Amino acid sequence: MKQRLKQTNNVMGELQKNVTNLFVIAMVGFFPLFYRNNYIDITDAKLSFFYICAGGLLVFTIVFAGGGWIKNSSKMIGGGTSYRII
Question: pTM surpassing 0.90?
């Protein structure tokens, strides 16, 4: 049972790591190259790009952390024991 619980937590942790990796790739790889309207409003364009990326990171982190917390809570409420009927 503990191994299954660790595996569930590991999946949520891996998803969080993947989302964070995508955020870093977007900020390091695409953010410096992003502009609109021939550099006239570059500050507004960069700010909106950052808000969208940071908001997406925040939303996905809350979703995956909440999913992991709910899984852990349901396992603890259920007592953590499972019975098999033979």
Answer: no
- Residue 6's H or E segment, with its range, is helix 2-25
C-alpha pair distances (Å), 41 with each of 30, 37, 55, 59, 82: 17, 7, 21, 27, 60
For every residue of 32-84, DSSP letters joined together read: GG---GGGTTHHHHHHHHHHHHHHHHHHHHHHHHHHHHHHHHHHHHTTT----
> What is the tens place of the pLDDT at every residue in 62-86?
998 888 777 777 666 655 555 556 5
**Segment 77-81 long-range contacts (CB within 8 Å, at least 24 positions apart):** 80/1, 81/1
